[in-house]
Write a structure and sequence with these properties.
The structure holds two protein chains of two kinds. Helix content of chain A is 0%, strand content 53%. By secondary structure, chain A is an all-beta fold. Chain A has a five-stranded antiparallel β-sheet, with no helix packed on it. Chain A has a five-stranded mixed β-sheet with strand order 2-10-9-4-5, with no helix packed on it. In chain B, the strands form two sheets. In chain B, strands 2, 4, 5, 6, 9, 10 and 11 form a seven-stranded mixed β-sheet that branches. Chain B is mainly beta. Classes of the chains: A mainly beta, B mainly beta. At the A-B interface, strand 4 and strand 5 of A face strand 5 and strand 10 of B.
Chain lengths: 111, 114
């Protein structure tokens, strides 16, 4: 069955460092993959979408890579700030245009 | 532009009771989704509508859950009768087209079943 794995442990980093979050998927080939941010008690908010023919996408301090051979996406936040503390959800799109979410990785950025 | 509206934000019921959640998507968005998010997990798709037709309801527990989207705009998700394991946040999302990817989520409706 289709499976999405994200770092189950929370990621703790110091302000100013680069945070790197991992998303691995198995048993399917998404046409594109999205990353969302979710704050406690709020709905997820879309951050970035990367297509299967794109290796890398950037938006301000965010960078996403998509390796269809490894079946993996990496999400980077450079020069991290305490305001970046949240849960980040990976969402590879499946055939039939269904969006399935990973469990998310909690990021804590210490000042 | 107004976002996705959901109500109620919080609901506490006893098991075997019924509950209904309402969602108003962003104007012009043809695709509407209901997700269930249990604490510590990612959102799980329950049902997806394209206009007022169902695209996918393969993970909707149809013996107790029902959803409708009348006139291709607002949607209601109902649970009857509720079980303890239905305690979760119910998230509604919409998108302009089914193949454009980006989903816009509401704030969610938190259900506690006692």
């Amino acid at each position: 069955s289709q499976k999405i794995e994200q770092n189950s442990e929370a990621l703790n980093i110091q302000e100013g460092k680069t945070a790197t979050l991992t998303c691995n998927y198995t048993n399917y080939s998404p046409a594109y993959l999205q990353w969302y941010r979710q704050d406690p008690g709020r709905g997820p908010v879309f951050l970035l979408l990367i297509r299967e023919n794109e290796k890398e996408k950037r938006k301000e301090r965010l960078k996403v890579t998509f390796d269809t051979t490894l079946k993996q996406s990496l999400f980077h936040i450079t020069a991290s700030q305490p305001a970046d503390s949240a849960t980040y959800l990976c969402a590879p799109h499946t055939g039939g245009f269904k969006t399935i979410f990973g469990a998310g990785t909690r990021l804590f950025v210490k000042a | 532009e107004a976002g996705v509206a959901q109500s109620p934000r919080y609901k506490i019921i006893e098991k075997r009771q019924s509950v209904a959640f309402w969602c108003n998507p962003i104007s012009g968005h043809a695709t509407l989704y209901w997700y269930q998010q249990i604490l510590g997990q990612g959102p799980k798709l329950l049902i997806q509508f394209q206009n007022n037709g169902v695209v996918d309801d393969s993970q909707l527990p149809k013996d107790r859950f029902s959803a409708e989207r009348l006139k291709g705009v607002d949607s209601t998700l109902k649970i009857q009768p509720a079980k303890l394991e239905d305690s979760a946040v119910y998230l509604c999302a919409s998108s302009y087209r089914v193949d454009t990817g980006e989903l816009f989520f509401g704030e969610g409706s938190r259900l506690t079943v006692l």
